[in-house]
Amino acid sequence: MDWRDSEKHGEGTPWYRISTKDFVHFTEHGEMLPRGTTEEQDLYVFTGSAISAHENINAQGKYHIFYTGHNPHLLHQGKPQEGIMHAVSEDMKQWKKLPGQTFFAPDDRYERNDWRDPFVFWNEESREYNMLVAARFKKGIPRRRGLTALCASKDLEKWEVREPFYAPDLYYTHECPDLFRMGDWWYLLFSEFTDLVRTRYRMSRSLKGPWIIPKRDDFDGHAYYAAKTASDGNKRFLFGWNPTRDGAKDSGDWNWGGNLVVHEIYQENNGELSVKVPETVKAAFGNIVAQDFRPGAGSVQAENGILKIKSPGTFEAAAAGKMPSTCRINATVEFEKETKECGLMLRVSDDLETAYYIRLEPRNNKLVFDKWPRDRSEVSQMVELDRDIALIPGVPYHFQVFIENTKGVAYLNDKIAMNFRIYDLPEGNWGVFVSQGAATFKNMTVSTL
Question: Edge-to-edge strands of the sheet including 63-70?
Answer without folding.
Answer: 44-52, 63-70, 82-89, 96-97
